[in-house]
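Standup notes
- DV: blocked on the single-chain target, sequence here:
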Amino acid sequence: MSLVTPHARAADALGAACYVRDDVAVALADALTETREAAPRPERDGRASPVAATPVRPSAAVRGRLRIALPLRYAGTREVEIAYECVGPADAPVVLAAGGISAHKHVLASETFPEPGWWDTQNGRGLDADRTRIVAIDWLGADGAIDAPIDARDQADAIAAALDALGIVAVEAYVGASYGAMVGLQFAVRYPQRVGRLVVISGAHRAHPYASAWRALQRQIVGLGQLQCDDAQGLSLARQLAMLSYRTPGEFAERFDAPPSLVHGRARVAAEDYLEHCGLAYVARTSPTAFLRLSESIDLHRIEPEAVNVPTVVIGIAEDRLVPVEDIFELAERLPQAELRLLRSKYGHDAFLTEIEAIAAQLRAALSAAAACTGGAA
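- DV (later): unblocked, structure below
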């Protein structure tokens, strides 16, 4: 494989419509602006605009919990509870879906569980619960019950345990975004025989040092709140700071380019209402312990891409401030079987949630290829 510096790789890709280097196929999609105005923009606080022509909800869904003794890398063997949800035909090929540290087992709304899922915008678009069975879990530690370091490998083992409980030998595809992409890479290393194709969105083989420093400050903010006996304020401020890393300066320039106002003798900038809303919404559903331990888990993640012996589609966002494009290119170049898709979006890391049609197109292509390889068998 040719040796090219990460910056050179990024420059090559961003300046060309399509290129192939050795065994890494790269296509650049630069048409996201076509979908930005037409598509709703779901926020990280769970709000979303109505979606025109929303696909019919899947009818069949089941939830369950299992308690197992799971060896954790940094905390010994513990009895843990793994909550899961499956939506779609029981005999259909399985697609495992995993999102960021705020994601959970409820991916898509169904007639059984009609509340909005965290990736409802992909229902019938990128994820097809009529042809496949969508399986997901709640992350270990998401309930705040584990106050110890949690490794992404622990999450991969929890997924394997859930699949065992459901009688699922292998999944047709694993679709992971953000933290879910990191866990997917770990799962592919540990259980290559159990996944037909891996789809990695906005995740890489390591946590970038700049992003890790950003998260370290967020954890210190939570710690300061705890010292002041104000857990909620500390967690809210940490979340508000995190929002700046999920999005981009370009989006904030468009949405909040209004002069500051004076409130009670202090300047208040246009973005503060939005940030405070996001912080309060996050506090309402997340414990400080869960945030701290899952944030740490991101920074503990690291794999050698050469160890991933599973066909992998890597989808990166050129404007992502948490997973820089240089890391995306390095991951794809070092993976034994990689196909890289690079998108542009003013929503940065959150593009997997907000760029609905563009992400759906990538998911359809990746999952169609996975089905073709497996013959559509469960």
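- Follow-up: The domain at 210-297 is CATH 1.10.1740.110 (Rna Polymerase Sigma Factor; Chain: A).
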